[in-house]
Amino acid sequence: MPGSKALRKHRTSLEGQAYLLTTTTMYRRTIFRDAEVSFAVCKALHQPWLWRDSQLLAWVLMPDHWHGLVRLGRDDDLSTLMGRFKSVTARAVPQCFRINGWLWNRGFHDHALHNDEGVRETARYLVANPLRAGLVDEIANYPYWDAAWIGARPDSICAL
Question: 87-90: long-range contacts (C-beta < 8 A, 24 or more apart)?
Answer without folding.
Answer: 88/44, 88/47, 88/50, 89/40, 89/41, 89/44, 89/45
